[in-house]
């Protein structure tokens, strides 16, 4: 594989009614075998991310995925590959999971220890599963042009999540570089902050009614901030 070839990967964040998320260990023979991850895998030619997830969940765990929403897209360079991870959330799946490839698996809460170590970049992402759909004040929000370094300090002391209010794509790119948990944007700039229709971080749309939540989630938002 040439160094700069980007591999697109579909990643499923399947959330049970009790808020727990499906995680599984990586089968023997793959890079990072034995580490835990969200189920998913590489896109095949012509597949959408949702289609790839439907296939991978069936192949790996026998789970049937009915619907899923874009959550965010994240690039990461491993030694073995440069991946573009397309995370999608779903509460709409059925079937009892089975280990079709010899993996361990289970449903876990964000603050619970899995039997094995998660892939390093997945831990932060698992925490974000608890971000509420409708924004609450228990999250720290910074305006990026102000003192953004403060974010790292605040994160440890008081707030579980740190987000940034972003006026445009440049701000969102800064929030990505600083690994913020979420961004808040106005409805009129939402589209401009996406990467080919997918957010780059979980995104709240500001100043819209809570009753429009589903509409904005269909378009890729994590949630709304009325
Ligand atoms: N499925 C999954 N892959 C992840 C996660 N986090 C993360 O960095 N990755 C990376 C690891 C791998 O480099 C890549 C997924 O590739 P893979 O080898 O598991 O995909 P696959 O099942 O299609 O593999 P194969 O059949 O081609 O062997 O994405 C995650 O949470 N879930």
Automatic annotation (TrEMBL):
Catalysed reaction, written as an equation: 8-oxo-dGTP + H2O = 8-oxo-dGMP + diphosphate + H(+); 8-oxo-GTP + H2O = 8-oxo-GMP + diphosphate + H(+)
Domain of life: Bacteria
Gene3D superfamilies: Nucleoside Triphosphate Pyrophosphohydrolase
Protein name as annotated: 8-oxo-dGTP diphosphatase
Annotated keywords: DNA damage, DNA repair, DNA replication, Hydrolase, Magnesium, Metal-binding, Mutator protein
Cofactor(s) needed for function: Mg(2+)
Family the entry assigns: Belongs to the Nudix hydrolase family.
EC class (word): hydrolase
Residues of the Nudix hydrolase domain: 4-142
One Pfam family recorded for the sequence: NUDIX_4
E.C. number(s) listed in UniProt: 3.6.1.55
GO molecular function: 8-oxo-7,8-dihydrodeoxyguanosine triphosphate pyrophosphatase activity; 8-oxo-7,8-dihydroguanosine triphosphate pyrophosphatase activity; 8-oxo-dGDP phosphatase activity; 8-oxo-GDP phosphatase activity; metal ion binding
Keyword DNA damage among record annotations: yes
GO biological process, one term: DNA replication
